[in-house]
Amino acid sequence: MDAMIEDMFARLMAEHCTPTIVRKVEDGTGEQASAALNGLWSEIVQTGLHDALVPEDLGGIGLTLADLVPVFRLIGVHAAPLPLAETMVARAILARAGVEAPDGTIALASAPEGSDHRVETPVVPLARTASHVLVDCGARIGLFASGPQAVIASGGRYSLSARLSFDRAAASAWLDPTATLRPVSALLHAAKMSGAMRKLLEMSVDYANLREQFGRPIGRFQAIQHQLSVMAEEVAAATMAVEVACDGTGDGLWPDVLKAAMAKERTSAVAPSVSAAAHAVHGAIGISAEHDLHLLTRRLHEWRVAEGAESYWAREIGIALLSSEEPAVDFIRLALAG
Amino acid sequence: MLSPLNLARIPDADEALRSQVKAFLAERLPDISTDVRARSWMGHDPGFSRALAERGWIGMTLPREYGGAGRSYFSRFVVVEELLAASAPVAAHWVAERQSGPLILHFGTEAQRAFYLPRICRGEAFFCIGMSEPGSGSDLASVKSRAVRTDAGWTLNGTKLWTTYAGAAHYMIALVRTSGTPEDRNRGLSQLIVDLSLPGITISPIRDLAGDAHFCEVHFDNVELPADALIGGEGDGWKQVMAELALERSGPERLYSSILLFDQWLDHLRRADAVDDQSIALAGSLVSRLASLRSMSVAITAKLVEGERPEVEAALLKDLGTGLEQAMPQLIADALAANPDLVPGETLLRTLAYTSEMSPAFSLRGGTREILRGMIARGLGLR
Question: Does domain B250-380 have CATH number 1.20.1600.10?
Answer without folding.
Answer: no
